[in-house]
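Hello support,

Our group uses your service weekly, and this is the first time we've seen a run hang past the timeout. The protein is DUF4828 domain-containing protein. I'm not sure whether the cause is the sequence or the server load. Input pasted verbatim:
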Amino acid sequence: MSLRKAKPTPKNDSPLFYVGTWQFTDPHNQRRHRLIISPSLDVEIDNHPLHVQVKHLSEQQLTFQDKFGYHLTIHANERRPISFFDEADDCTYPIASPTDNA
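Update from on-call engineer: The timeout came from a worker crash unrelated to the input. Re-ran successfully.
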């Protein structure tokens, strides 16, 4: 009988997990927005670059801080990013791939 330890499952905390183009709808005015996260973790909303710094990266969330000190947190499940919280607006937005409801 072998008492060898099982290898742990690799964690998915690669920044590439969050990279992509995502869309969300503002619940206040029903306007659709586009969120882009680049491989270098640059962030754009509606073609406007945001000046942010990465503050936290894990398999459940990616948190940025903007130049005003507010946080933008992308939450994920085991498959993909699912929502983001904008501290400046105090609002959580569900996000989807643009192909999810094309």
